[in-house]
Structures are given as structure tokens and as C-alpha cells.
Amino acid sequence: MMATYVGVILIAITLLSVYILGILADSFYSTEKVKLFAKANIISGLITDTDNITDETRESIGKTLYGSNIRCIVTGKDLRALFDSNNDSDIVGKIVIREAINKCMAKGEETYVIGEGINEVKMLSVAVPLMTGTRVLGAVYLAESISGADTAVNDIRRNLIIFAIITSILVAMLSLVLSLMTTAPIDNFIAVSKEISKGNFSVRAKEKGASELIEMATALNYMSQELEDFEQNRKKFVSDVSHELKTPLATIKLLCDSIVTTDNPDTDMVKEFLGDLSNEVDRLTRLVERLLTLTKMDANQKVKNATPVDFTVMLKAIIRNLTPNAQSKNIMLYDDFGDITLEPVMLDYDKIWEAIYNVTDNAIKYTPEGGFVRMGLGIKNQMVVVTVEDNGQGIPDSEKERIFDRFYRLDDSRARETGGTGLGLAIAKEAVQLHGGEISVKDSENGGSIFTITIPYIRETAV
Ligand SMILES: Nc1ncnc2c1ncn2[C@@H]1O[C@H](COP(=O)(O)OP(=O)(O)OP(=O)(O)O)[C@@H](O)[C@H]1O
Ligand SMILES: [Mg+2]
Q1: In CATH, what number does 211-297 get?
Q2: Best mutation site among 366, 399, 406, 432 for ligand 1, i.e. most ligand atoms within 8 A of its Cβ?
Q3: pLDDT at residue 340 is higher than 70
Q4: Domain 2-152, what fold?
């Protein structure tokens, strides 16, 4: 890139210099030419008789040339010199051979020649014919050194070369700085990307430089942050799962060891231990089932198997299913939506069933004997709103968000004893969010909690 910049600048300056120098030389030569022709014409006007150049004429010619370094030779028609302003030469009376004179005499018109004179001095010479009518009687020849102009042009050329070199150096330095400014962040991005590909998600790109580079760095950093969060979640999930599996497995091991190490155990004890073992296996099965449900939900980012679902029918079915659990705790489980009718809503029946079932199951589980669980249904802002209210133990404000996290239980050991996996609400949240809805909890007026599930009211007709 740097070489390109310097190259372009050098070519531009060279072309410009050649052009400027050409114009300068031309203008100088043409000014001098005009001056010489003017003088030559004056002199030709002074000469009235080529056979006899009077002293008076000589004097006038001298005056015309006064103060200049112009040499003047007047020739007759036979090319013999009649007059020479250079008193030291002896060419008067001799044939003068000058290109300008020859051309002028041959054509009978003004001529100029730029060429090298003695000692390689550049000379400008002009010749104007001396005419009588159409007859050429002779010529007035003026010659002048123009090496001064050449020196000036050379000076300018030298200055232009210095200027070109300085400019190129400056451009080289500038493009070096510019390229460092652009390549340094890109090098940084490459290094960061390599680290990310190696699995080090804590690296971040430097967010500085041009706006595009900042945008790129921000996007890269966003990606690494997401990957870091994802990786942390994954690690946490694996460690949580291991932890959750360890407890029932340890209990099973303990129960088995007890039976194996007891000599002649009586049948009742074996039966009791086997009963406990069966419970632990049930818990493990439940945990594995819930984990599977959760993993399936993760993999599906879109609602598949959407079918038209009648909410009132679904909610009443859930109540029917959980009534035995409620009755065993003497809890009143009922709906308060009467005969409200909703158009069928397009959704994945199993997933939403599971979400509402989990929330209602919790309400029964975490409400003391003799309490109540009420289910509500309505439409608000084009959303189906399902509420599950209980008058149970309630949930402290600080825990209201966290209960939706995987494996989170308020009273960990007690909840575990009741068989709670801590996955029910996490599954419910995933299911609801998958449908573009939300799940939240707030305190109910009677000390318990109200869980609210909202699902977009997408009717069968709209699909
Ligand atoms: N209605 C409620 N009243 C009080 N606490 C609740 C209520 N619902 C949930 N919780 C608390 O939130 C925790 C998380 O509930 P979640 O349904 O995710 O797990 P779980 O019920 O313990 O396990 P699982 O659903 O597998 O049986 C529960 O352990 C409980 O402490
Ligand atoms: Mg639950």
C-alpha cells in the first residue's frame, strides 16, 4: 500500500514537473524571440541601402542593441557580412554561414533557430530579410545566449526533485502510520479470533480506531461474551446435574450396602430398604425425564407441532389430573373462569400443558394442608393470561427471579426430600418463552403466590 502511494505521488510530481518546466522554457524562449524579432525589425528598418551602411546607421544599430548581449550581423544577398556588432571579429566582407540566415534568405521570411553555439552555450538566433518589394536584398541576423533561461529551468528542476523526494518521504511515513493504524486492530482481531477458536472466551478485542473497526470489535466482543456465558452455563449445568445425580446414587449405594452387610436380615427390613430403593430409583427416573424434556426444549428454538388448543378444556383437564394430589392434602383446587370461551390457540399442546401443570403442581406442593389453589384465565392485550394462585408459604422477593433457574429450590434439602428436582419452573419458562410468552410470579393478597403465564393469542384462523 505504501509503495503504491509513493509510486503514484512520484509519477504525479514527475509529470507535473515535465509539464511546468516545458511551459516555463517555452514562455521564456517565446518572450526572448519576440524581443529579438522586434529589434531585428527595427534594425532592418534602419538599413535603407545594403550597398552602403553609413556610420549613422551603425550608430543607430548600436543604440538599438545597447545594454544587451545581442550580436547583430547584417548580410547582403550574397551572404557576405556587411556589418557585425562584434568589433573583434573580422567576418565583415566574408560569407557568413548561419542556419537562420540561410533559411530566411531562402524563404524571404522571418526565421528563428534555437541551437548550440560555441562552448555548448545555448543560443537563440533570429533573422529577418531585407526586402525591396519581393526581392531579398539581405538579412539582419541577431543572436543571443539563452543559457540563463536554461540555468533557471535547471534550478527549478532541482528544486522540484528535492520537493518530490521530501513529499515521497512524507507520504511514505504517513501511509506507514495509516497502515499501522488499520492493520494493528485487524491483527488484534485475528489474535482474538484465534484465542476464541482455541476455547479461550475471556479474550476481548480492543474497541478503538475508525468507527467500522469499533463496530467489528464490538461484534467480536459480543460473540466472545455470548460464548463465555454459554460455556459457563454449560459447565454449571453439567456440574449441577452431576450433583443432583450423586445424592440419590449415594442413597441407593448406602441402602444396598446395608442389606449386603447385614447377616440374616429379616424380610420386613429388606422390604423397607427395597421400598426406599424403589423411591430413589423413581426420583432418578423423574430427574432424568425432566432433564430430557429440558434438553429437547433447548434444541428446539421454534414451536413445532402447533395444534389448535382450547384453553378452558386444557386447564380443566390439568385440574382433573391434579385433584387427587390436592385432595390428599385437603387443598381446594378450582377454576374461577366459569364458562369463558376462547378461540382455539395455536401451540405445542404437550409443552404448554407441562408448563401449567408444573406451576399448579407446585402450588399444591408448597401450600399447607387445608389451603386453596385457584386457576384463572382471561385475555389481555392479545395475550392469553393464565393465573395460578395459592395461599401457601409464598416466595421472598429476592427469590422470585431465581426460582426459574435450573435446580433452584427455596428450601433445598426439604424440597429435595419431597422429590423436587428444581427443574419444573425452568421447563415451564422455556416452554412459555418458546411460544413468545412470559412467566412471572408475585405475592398474592392472602400470603401465597400468584404465577402468571402469558401466551400470544394466536388463533387458528390467523395462521
Ligand atoms: N407456589 C409456590 N409457593 C412457594 N414456593 C414455590 C412455589 N412454586 C415454586 N416454589 C419454589 O420454587 C422452587 C422451584 O420450583 P420448581 O418447580 O422448579 O422445582 P421443584 O418443584 O422443587 O421440583 P419439580 O418441579 O421437579 O417437582 C421450589 O423448590 C419451591 O421452593
Ligand atoms: Mg415443581
Answers
A1: 1.10.287.130
A2: 366
A3: yes
A4: Beta-Lactamase (3.30.450)
